[in-house]
Amino acid sequence: MTTVRLPLFPLNSVLFPGLVLPLNIFEERYRAMMRDLLKTPEDAPRRFAVVAIRDGHEVAPSAPGMPDATALSRRGPTAGFGDDPAKAFHTVGCVADAATVRERADGSFEVLATGTTRVRLHSVDASGAYLTAELEELPEDSGDGAGALAEGVLRAFRQYQKRLAGARERSLSSGTELPDEPSVVSYLVAAAAMLDVPAKQRLLQAPDTASRLRDELKLLRAETAIIRNLPSLPASELTRGPTSLN
Fold it and tell me: Which terminus of the chain, N or C, has less C-beta within 10 A?
């Protein structure tokens, strides 16, 4: 088993390979992480690992956009995650490559990263200014029938988009080129569908692409049926999420 040690960035959301992650960094532990990442040679990736926080744990000291230095009873890399931070996180996450890191005048950072590879969390180290983790990179196996499943998922996803957008709105898939590579389809749909964190986490840690696509097909059909019975829903911009706050 080959492992790698990377900085750890816990979030109340799930990152998938190939998806873009905008971050607004204001906590000191994550500022320190970004300062270290900026020391990476320009031709090397600035890698850190994103893991989703389990229910019952907080990622930010206060409401989004309103950092409050008094809101946490403890400081340091484990603040908000308990005495054993590994228990606060899901064990499968995603490596992110910070292509853009901009430091603001107040010392906070604006970061644009992209998910690259799934990883399994083996251990967490809290001895530094921020958490680091020993991680095992996970292969992406296609599984049986991934190609046909991807076609079915894309059809179900277009129906899902139309229901969300509403009969009076232009279909969100109109004029949009959707991918046909099964693993890319599986991750795009997992990220774009309006699902809660536990459901997205199950999709991230699916054993192979075909299994993920099968689960998505069930979820999309179920969600579309629910939406069909609702009186109305506003149009939703599915492929763009809000900036994540640390």
Answer: N
Please tell me the pTM assigned to this model. 0.82
Residue at token pair 């509403």: 166
40: nearest Cα among 93, 101, 94, 95: 101
Q: Are 8 and 124 in contact (CB under 8 A)?
A: yes
Any idea how long the chain is?
246
Give whole-number Cα distances, 245 to 22, 65, 67, 190, in Å: 9, 7, 9, 21
| Structure-token match 């990442």, residue found | 37
Report in angstroms the alpha-carbon separations of 156 from 176, 182, 185, 196, 206. Answer: 15, 14, 12, 19, 19
Which pLDDT tens digit goes with each residue over 135-188? 999 999 999 999 999 999 999 999 888 887 763 344 444 445 667 799 999 999
